[in-house]
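Quick one: examine the sequence and fold tokens given here and explain what the tokens say about the fold. Here goes:
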Amino acid sequence: MDLAVSSLRAARTRADLRLAPGERPLAGGTWLFSEPQPGVTGLVDLMSLGWEPVARTAAGLRVAATCTVEQLASHAPDPAWSAWPVVAACVDALLMSFKVQGQATVGGNVALALPAGAMTSLLAGLDAVAVVWTPDGGERCEAVADLVVGPGRTTLEPGEVLRAFDVPAHALQARAAVRQVALTAVGRSSSLVVARRDADGTVTLTVTAATPRPVQHRFACPPTSAQVDGVLTGLEWYDDLHGAPDWRRAVTTLLAHEVLAEVAA
């Protein structure tokens, strides 16, 4: 869809990220160009900043906000990263064409904050921390599980820009399992559940798509069935045409038991 914009700027330095009234940051643009954007009069291209898409660090892995889904999926993992299959599972959950995978960015999917945003599911499930550039020239860090606070809502303030996501080595090296369900074979995720067991025995359960925002629970050791049912009781379940709340609760409970049993085995 054509946008009624009068300017397009290529960001070369951080100073170029100061947005004028009506300007919006542009990365892959797969959502931005998919529907009308009232009030948007200019775009600032983030891709021209040249951020390295995926980089190994001493602490784990850094994924640039401008990294495309395709670049993340094709990254060759370290042999010690036993949780890496979760990446492919979440990429497949997006159910996008290869053309869209080559354009859509990881940061864009998180910033859009859809309950079924599979990059949010992936990064939250792996305890990733979002690195956010602030307008004053500083930066702040926030867990992805906390960054998304509801459908279409994040903690990002005006002028803030997602720079990267840092995935810790302990999560990449953990034993992990993922399950996803949708109403149709090629439909949007109705529930996506990730379980992870770290080397110290800690078990993390992350629920997305079935809830308005990521929900995470940690257990010191593999939980009992009663403990799992207990933490899922009372959650707010998302309600839209991709699934009713009571159905989402039922399937999420089933999936949670499955992934937790898998990582505990």
